[in-house]
Amino acid sequence: MTISDINVDEALERVRQQLKEDRTVSPSLRAAIDVLMLLVKLMADRLATSSRNSSKPPSQDMNRVRRSRAAGERKPGGQPGHEGTTLVPVDDPDEVVKLSIDRRTLPRGRTYRTVGIEKRQVKDILIQSLVTAKRGQEAMDAIGVLPFVQGVLVHDHWKPYYRYTECRHALCNAHHLRELIGVWENDQQAWAKTLHDLLLAMNQAVEDAGGRLSPDAARRWRERYRHCLAEGDVESPPPAKPLLGTRGRTQARNLFERLQARVEDVLRFLEDSAAPFTNNQGERDLRMTKVQQKISGCFRSWEGAEIFCRMRSFLSTSAKQGLSAHAALEQLFAGEMPLFMQRDERSQAA
């Protein structure tokens, strides 16, 4: 690993070699130096970790470049003359508050007369937080989605997911690619770079084959995959009994054992057309809901939430069918159904 043009691994290795050759260093000093070298290694690993080579979010990257927006001439919010409507007053409000004028507070020396009543409607949004003591599978069961999944469940190897046995599991390879980059850059283990490139080549082969490989082709890719793991077992061997106060398995070894134990789930995309290479598409489909939540904080009604989800689902499906959002909305407002919806209706009628 290199930080500010300094190869930390080489520097630590030189210190280890000097300690090994120097017979005058006392055992207590040698132990203290070993602890300091471990701390240097831990801090160097932390500095070298970013969103590019780990699951760390980009917002936590050090010295990340922030995009600055050029100041516009218009003020934020709705512009004068823009089309829009306000909330229509309701006939039966929950509460009516009459505000009377205290004449003693009015400026003296003037004549005042009643000109009418001004009405205003205010809608308060009740914000509630639901806190549950449930965790893990119990919490996911309470949400009521995953227990009914019977297709392919793509995830990041969180162990509670594997308690659902009615579906096929696939691991998101976007996580694996980032972690392999981290092992290659931080620990200089060649098997990680080889396996990183191999996974990308597998994905390209699946795309070229139209979404799935033949059994013979998949078998050949699996052999190459296991060959990479064999090299990884040599470069990242299981640790001996760890010293007190030190880590046991390294991050590289943990990644290796996960890739070895879950070969079928890692490579399910080779032959199963329902299993994607990564879970990025699912995260993209949820992103706009999180953006709306970030901007507005919540939905004002359950009906509004359903309308939002229905529209996002329609636009997302249109994009996956090769139809742009603009063209899909044009057809929708013209009273025409997109071609993929017409095909679905014909298949249901048949």
TrEMBL record:
Residues 132-306 form the Transposase IS66 central domain. Residues 48-90 are annotated as: Disordered. Pfam families: DDE_Tnp_IS66, DUF6444. It comes from the Bacteria. Residues 48-62 have a biased composition (Polar residues). Residues 17-85 form the DUF6444 domain. PANTHER family: BLL1576 PROTEIN. This is IS66 family transposase. It comes from Vreelandella rituensis.
